[in-house]
Amino acid sequence: MNRYPQFCPQPPHKGGAAPSTKSKEDHENSSSRWDFGTKAVHAGIFPDPSTGAIMTPIFQTSTYVQEYPGQHKGYAYARGKNPTRSQLESALAALENAQHGLCFSSGMGAIDAVIKRLRPGDEVICGDDLYGGSYRLFMRLYEPMGMVFHFVDLSDEGAVKSCLNEKTKMIWTETPTNPLMKVADIRALSMIAKAHGVMLAVDNTFASPYLQNPLDLGADLVMHSATKYLGGHSDVVMGFLATNNSALHEELAFILNSSGANPGPMDCYLVLRGIKTLHLRMKAHCENGRKVAYFLQQHPGVSKVYWPGFPEHPGHAIAQAQMKDFGGMISFELKSDQEEVAMRMASYTKVFALAESLGGVESLIGHPASMTHASIPRPQRLASGVSDTLLRLSVGIEGADDLIMDLDQAIRRALGL
């Protein structure tokens, strides 16, 4: 007899361990038909059956009582599973139209789990413009172990195909890229990947599931730094992986449990709360991003603006086809070749905060060369197009006129206009 009152973290079910995610049938029959806003609020999330609480409880526990050795309710030790985390994984998977989701303690923890699948001699084709932390992980930790990474322009199918060989295991892409806002054709890359039997993984952080769903376009795996738009409030660090491949999910779940890069329940609660307003926030990010991008394009002190919403952007047509909108991430160059001028401009803003990260409700400005991409050796960074004078914006949800005035005064002050 069970000596303890039963708590079922999911809806009541007959026999077996409590499921950590919704079944495929449930997913297809409910949230798959919902509007994105409805999914953001409800998909994969159930009221607490023991109390009726509409918000998922924070299960602040390291272990779980078992009825008999090896017999439990689906949860044995919190490194493996936690009910709060299970609900978040189910909810985020629904937003990416995925059958499976896994949460990690950071975006880099999620990427690390993916690369741990490789063996010495395996090769990966990567975009030539990517987050500095990803480059550092690939080149400083895994290249010395024998993995080989090719950095190419993923918008050039010929360049991608020229790197493919029998040792290629994966294509890793960001789209839009960080920080030059290049756009990769996910569907075209998926066709190349499938034709050669390699996996296509997409870092979807800049777009968020609201703007883009790579699995629907043929990708095998989607990664998010949930720290960014998913959490949305600059108060949590987390990573997420989504896939429809059950075998791949099981392999990654084993790596997660074995290496312990799991997030805590409080962090999971914060992201669960954050995604409920993802659709509302993304609309504001996109609206403000458009206004700021066009303002910068017309500013006398700005020489170039990187934003895929411009019709003249090389990847505009692809972005228009695979994204709902063009987002709130923008990079730009001032009409000065002096790094110090760009750095001063970034420090002169009053509404935009000078800080790393992105995707929060507040607007941020950064200098990639000395901040997010400082781990990339300067010659490689310059070769990829990330100059010493490049500035990157994460446009928040404040009043657009205030953001524009702030940038205007900072640019004019830095350039002496």
Structural write-up:
By secondary structure, the protein is α/β, with parallel strands linked by helices. Among the domains are: 100-252, Aspartate Aminotransferase, domain 2, CATH 3.40.640; 278-415, Alpha-Beta Complex (Aspartate Aminotransferase, domain 1). Helices cover 37% and strands 14% of the residues. The chain has 15 helices and 12 strands. A 7-stranded mixed beta sheet has the order 1-7-6-5-4-2-3, with helices on both faces. Helix 2 runs antiparallel to helix 3 and helix 3 runs parallel beside helix 10 (265-275). The model is unreliable at 1-24 (pLDDT under 50).
Task: Compile the SSE list and pairings.
Layout: H1 24-29, H2 36-42, H3 83-95, E1 100-104, H4 107-115, E2 123-127, H5 132-142, E3 148-152, H6 157-163, E4 168-174, H7 186-195, E5 199-203, H8 208-211, E6 221-225, E7 239-243, H9 246-259, H10 265-275, H11 278-298, E8 302-306, H12 316-322, E9 329-334, H13 339-348, E10 353-354, E11 364-366, H14 378-384, E12 390-394, H15 400-415
Parallel strand pairs: 2-3, 2-4, 4-5, 5-6, 10-11
Antiparallel strand pairs: 1-7, 6-7, 8-9, 9-12, 11-12
Helix pairs in contact: 2-3, 3-10, 4-5, 13-15
Summarize the structure.
The protein has 417 residues and is α/β, with parallel strands linked by helices. The strands form two sheets. It has a seven-stranded mixed beta sheet with strand order 1-7-6-5-4-2-3, with helices on both faces. Strands 8-9-12-11-10 form a five-stranded mixed beta sheet.
